[in-house]
Amino acid sequence: MSKKSKYLSETLEMESQLLPDAGYGTYYCRLPLFTLLRLNNKGETSTDALTVKISSAEEDGQPGLIVSKEIEIDDIQPDSGVEINAGSVLNPKFLAELNEITSRTVTVTVFSGKEEVLSVQNEVRCLPIDCWPGLGASVEMLSTLVRPKLADCRKILSEAALQMQKWGYPSEWSGYSGNDKNAVRSAAAAIYSAIRAQDLTALPENSLTLPQQTGDLTEVLSKKEATPLQAALLYASCIESAGLNPVIVLGEEGVAAGVWLRENCFTSTCIDDMSVIEKYVQDGVNNLAVFDVNDIFSHKNASFTTSGTHFAAALKRGDYEVALDVKRCRIGGLFPLPIKVKQNGKYELLDEKSFSYDNKPEELPVFSAKERGASKERTWQRRLLDLSLKNNLLAFKTGGDCVRILSCDLTSFIQGLDSADKFNLLPSAQEVNQPSGFGESLEVRALRELIQMQLSSGTMRSYLQADALNECCSSLIRKAKTAQEEAGANTLCLALGFLKWKKDGEYKYAPLILLPVTLQKNRRQGITLIRDEDYTVNTTLLEFLKREFDIDLRGIEDENFSAAQTLALFRAKTAEMDGWEVTEDVYISQFTFARYAMWSDVKNNISVFKKNPLIASLLAGANKLPSVKLAGEREDESDPCGILTPLPCDSSQFEAVAECSAGTTFVLHGPPGTGKSQTITNMIANAVNEGKRVLFVAEKQAALSVVKKRLTDIGIGEFCLEFTTGKPADKSALITSLQSTLDLKNAEYTDTFAEDGRKIEEVRGALSRPYSALHKKRTIGASVYDGILYYFRNRKSSDLMNIESTFYDSLTAEKLEKCESMLTRAQVAAKECGGVYRSPFDNVNISEYSEDVKAATLCAAEVLLAELKHFRNYVGLFLELFSQKISSFTPKKADSFVRILTVLKSGALQEFFGMDEREMHAFFNASLTYDRALRLWFRRFDDIPDVEKLMPGLKEELDNWDENYRSSRRITAVIKKLNKCTQNKLGEKEEAEWVKRAYDMFTARAKIMDIAISRNFLTFTGSFNEKKREQYMQPVYELHELCSQVFMDYNADAFNSVCHRLITGGAAKPLLSGILSASKAFMSAKDSFMRATKGNESAYSDEDIFDCYTAKCTSLIDNIDMLPGWCAYKKTAKELNAMGLSFVTSAMESGAISGDKILSSFRKNVYRNFVQTNIPADEDLATFSAGMMDENAAKFAALAEAFSLDTKAEIRKNLISRLPSEGTEGPLALELMAFKRRTSGNVKRINVRELFAEIPGLLRVAAPCMMMSPSAVSQYLEARPDLFDLLIFDEASQIPTCEAVPALARAKSAVIVGDPNQLPPTTFFMALGQDEEETEAEDLDSVLDDCLALGIPQKHLRWHYRSNHESLIAFSNIMYYSGKLCTFPSPDAMDSRVKLKYVENGVYDRGFTKCNREEAEAVVAEVVRRLKDEKLRRKSIGIVTFSTPQQNYIERLLAKALSQKGLEEAAYEREEPLFVKNLENVQGDERDVIIFSVCYGPDRLGRISLNFGPLNQYGGWRRLNVAVSRARTDMLIYSSMRYSMIDLSRTNSRGVAGLKAFLEFAEKGRTGIAVKSDEMILNKSGIGKYVAEELSSYGYDCRCDVGVSDFKIDVAVVDPKNKHNFILAILCDGKSDFSVKDRTVMQVQTLKRSNWNVTRLYSINFFNNPKREIKRIKELLDRICSGGKTAAPGFKRIYRAAKVEECTVDTQYVLSGEHDADIMKIIRAIVAAEEPISARFLTKRTLATLGIFKFGVKLEGKISSLIDKCALRHEEILGATYYFRTDKFGSFDRYRVEENTALRTSDADYAAYDVISAIKSVLLSKVSMYADELAVAVQREFKVPRLSDKFAAFINSCIDYGVSKGIFVRSISDKISMV
């Protein structure tokens, strides 16, 4: 395993959880096998590309459970994980054919390249198709075995229908169409009876905790036998076939089956809380009818009713554990399984469509449009007006939170109410029995006068006693406050009089008159009731009476009737109704009737509303807007003076404002904390500045108030009319506001708006142009930044030096892409064939591969190898016989060798070799001598002299005369003849030499002449013929020349001797013939080989043919399987050469670059040239200056801030200038007069709606912005489709479409602001008084959802500002926003601010209080702790519970604790008071600290029910998302269960899955949440990676791409002193969609506000000079680490000299020995004060104290002996002895520096302790330094004037000592850092 793979195996962690069981149903219902598959990176660096393989091996010849799948993972950031989406991996064939329970091993393997780095295995139990895993596993899978389309079901239903007829019910099976519980119950009983009539025999059944083989249900009726489970499945199948919703209840030993008696289902597939079932089957509730299945068999005699009683008894005994809701399973995607049937000897699966005989054929497509608007209208009206009996306005229930008031005469009571606005609500003064139900008692009638008297005095009494009244009112106050905040309405009312009415024999009570009130509690006054508004008639009841009973009282609300008259009218209109009456009861309770005005508006004005394109689109279900495209204006391209944003905004916010300005209707996604209200404020400000009329709608008062406050802060609040949510308009305040706006006048101020806008545009351009130029795509398809990035990515690769400039000039994007593609292919091919350099296929030039080519190549190689061996043997034999050696048998030598053989075999030299051996040698050597002399002779002379006669005796005379050779006549004569043969006479110095050479030449010729063979070149006269001799000797010379070229250490005489012996006799002839034959065969095989391989013979010209071809052929044969890869490479190489990339192939084939590095080398060179060429060619990049960019960034920030003030002033000026003045004429003047006339009288009589309709033009200028709730729109605004230019809806995800219609219809364009991932509209607050675990409240479609479904254009706010720590939003961002939110990392980002507080002993009181007391107490204790702490209480606190009972319990517990501790003021009297809310009502709130109480967890028996209330609903995950995104600084989760306790195999709720993931995230931190692999954003690391590498070499720990969103800090440097924090953020100029303002202002300022140190690094500078940029950053880091100091604080000390009396003595004073004691005293004093001190410096200091400054060996020896006598503690370091008194210097944590006069004047005076401590201090502030830099720093610390070589060497020795002691580390590059 490679080093990299080993590292990965240590740092990667695989988490995998699989379904314990898998069957065909798992595949058929598309259930994921993996409930968790996560790959975590525990290392400190990101991983490269990984491959995850999921597989399952075959066993016993059977196929595997898994269809093998490979998933590519790009990379995983450090300390994070990736959630892998395995998808569908089950093998359906295996599961369909399985006949018995077995198990299979599923293996998940992680590969890096081809190396396995990690593997995990899991066992899965595999079940046959009709097998259910039992209670211990996936219970809901039992629903897949309920098959309603079985033919037997129809048979049973036919028989049951006959029974239904007998009982008086229709025989048709119509499900719940009649909504009659009795009819449904009878149907269930009839089916029970029909199955019972089959006389089924009960088969034994194993415990249901074990897997159950249910078998084929089609055989139950035919065989007349079944197990209880089979009978239950048959019954459930029949129930579902009848259109009803079956339920199966299971226990370990028992089975029950039943049906919902009304169309309903549970919130989850399985319910393990049997108290819910027990409640639902009770008489009076009767939501379910369930019977014991054992009673359906023939041996039992029990009716359906009796069997239900048996079930109820067994339920109470605890015989049942879980209830399975088949309908909910169907909703969750669990459908009936196909039936496995045997046909033609094979099994076949038939689904419902295949085996259902009455299945309706699919309809043919009809292409006619259907009008759907009418149904939509009715849906809107129905949802606006709740006419169901769940509404307590129609069916009031006296139980729960309501207070009955003592009253007898309602008319008198109302008169008493009118006497005051405030009443004290008191408990009953005496024991008064509250009458049951409604109506007064005789006891109360006796108190009539007392009641009336107390009312007139401001007192109102209830029937309740003090404690009960206090508790009930507290609950009402809390709920009313919540409803006001969430639903925007005051739901607390005094109900006066009730209508008693009857339906289906059951009496209901509906309130008649409602008086909105407010309850308040305080210690002094107790409970106070305050009237809020006027009386209101129950309009919902009016509409209900008209629809249901045709009693029309609808005009009563418009008449000014008194309460008494209203009651009388109700009595009169209902007098004829049997059993109806009006009671005069009075109750305080919650009622919801605020939407009546909207209902009326929609009902009456829908024809007008349809003219609005958006309303028409919603009705048609198709987009009918005139434009569906976004304008798409970007901030950097806009005119600063065009679109005005008075509040700071990021680019995504600006684009939303610009889109709004363009008049586009669009959806604006506003995830939590992204600045929605700020964006809305900017939208409104810009719109009103443009003269538009704006309607801002929000349901919550808080949303309206926030925007109104912001508008006031920017100076335009007077131009906005705000209507308080849930209350009628304050007419007086309204008129006053309009009048004060009309009175506004513009103030004088300096108008710099246009000039500042021009400056901003100019500076913005200066910042934008270099950035745009840097990222502009160039001719090669890459930007300069891309080029820099590619260069650094490949900078370690080799250079390609042979690239011609013309190649760069001709490079285009297409050509580059093609080149890289071919290089990639070449790289892959080279890898597949084992590499190019020294490849076994070297010189094989085949580019097209086929099997024929392979066979031909293999055959040619094998033939050549055989012939080569044959030839080699012959050559070896020849060499042995001829006694020759060959060093390297090259092709050239082989050719010469063949020529030698040919000559020898031809017999051409037979005469030469046939002579006498001695004569042959003499002749040959004489010929050689003669020819050498002859060649030399003709270089000097033109002819041969005739001196042959003078030759005898010439040598003796030359020897005798020596230098006096001219005295010899013979010699003189020879010289004369020689001079005649040359034009240049011989000089004196050369005469003797040439005479001697002439003698040698003629002597050699004489020897030749003496041999008989010389006759061949004599003339007929006997003279010597040179030409003939040359011709004769040429073959001999050529042979020996060839031999000298071929043979090593060639000896011609020896060769001649062998030839004389072998050639003459013909002995060598067979050998020569054989060699020549072998040679010819070899050459033929070689040529065939070359043709087959298309090789070039010249490639082997210098190689030994035997070794070369043998190795070549052997290697080729051994690696013939890699020939396809080589052919592919050669083909690519050919293409590369054709494209001018021959330098690449040459480099690969020469070994200059390895094959796997060729692409990186190419890129390095190409992109380096690209960058170096393009930077100077671009004006903006050529003149780039980092200093100027930083200066412009600072200037831009200042200008942006100033321009914001200018913008506010400009908008206010423009709005005031439009107001009418005294000189205004035209329609506006008339409207102004009408306004003054209407408001001059009694304001209370003004109809606001009529007033607004009368002055539209005046409102456009005086109140261009109106801020309302949805209900106020219908109440106060006329129905006109063009009333407003712009509508802005806030929190649109919470507004049902039906409520949004009135506002949408009144505007030309709309901006729908919201978040589809947050809380949807819900009927939760309409379903008052219901148990949330049993509530059937539905999540409604919001206007946001409907608009998105229409395909309306969308914009997204991207930047998250709320959370001060990224971990607080990380879960929500990754889990629900796919990481698309841009968040800002914190300096302490390595630690999470989301903490799990596990409550170990917590118990969820399921079925009773539904609270978790231990959790609540822990939460309250934490709140009290924080409020008591002065520092902690500064942070605001919010408590969020997962259930309403837990919320109520914590509220009570907290109120008590705060009261006892006196902390109410600290909790509530602050800007952000403490709140306690639940998942349903926390949206819109935020606090610094959010504390969660999960509440749910183990019950008393330790069991965990997966019923988590609202979380289980369809939109439960949205509720969770809202809750977990509320915190700013901290999040604490108190939970009695850990994430591992939640078994997701038992539920398919996304909300429950989210809760488990959230608990895991809280427990584990960042690694607890993983990005889904299919949503994973490819991490494109920028230049920061290479900056980090450089900084790391200095000892700094750096992290790249820090952050979990699209915005990342390129490089974050870890604080050396605190490894949990970052100390510096380095921002680079990588590619992004962020605007100039985002990059230069917003990001930097936000990071700095989060306590980051921030610096920028520009890629151009880094490319040009990396070392300079790194040095700059290192210097900044050094300053930050040291706080501006050159050394770490706490090390430096003052050098304190010993205080001894100085004197002047002579040397004798020391040497005499008389004063040794005094001197030793001085020594001890110096050591005590100046420890540690070296022996040398101690001697120097002692003598200096005595006035002796120069001393020799004697004095030094004397002092040394006295030091020894002192017996001081000492230690030797670096060859020097140091003396000291204490051990405090061993830790090297202090060094001394002289304060004034330097005592240490020499380099040797400094102690090693001081120097090592100084080095340590410097490194603690600088992290790392080069050794030479460190020496300079130490010199400066000691204030040494000059760093001498000796002192530098001493410092280096101290460094080495520190390294040896483990204090320092010295790198290869000589960098020193701390360990």
Descriptive overview:
Mean pLDDT is 84; it is low at 354-360, 362-374, 1324-1331, 1333-1338 and 1574-1579. By secondary structure, the protein is α/β, with parallel strands linked by helices. The longest helix has 32 residues, at 1186-1217. The strands form 13 sheets. Strands 20, 21, 22, 23, 24, 25, 26 and 27 form an eight-stranded mixed β-sheet that branches. It has a seven-stranded parallel β-sheet with strand order 30-31-29-32-33-28-34, with helices on both faces. A hairpin with a 6-residue loop joins strand 41 (1598-1602) and strand 42. The chain contains 67 helices and 52 strands. The radius of gyration is 52 Å and the shape is elongated.
Task: Please state the oligomeric state of the protein chains shown.
Answer: single chain
Structural class: alpha/beta
Q: Round the mean pLDDT to the nearest integer and report it.
A: 84
User: How much beta, percentage-wise?
Assistant: 5-15%
Backbone CA Rg = 52 Å
Tell me about the largest β-sheet: 8 strands, mixed
**Number of beta-strand segments:** 52
Ranges with pLDDT <50 over ≥5 residues?
Answer: 354-360, 362-374, 1324-1331, 1333-1338, 1574-1579
Distance between the termini: 30 Å
The helix tally amounts to 67
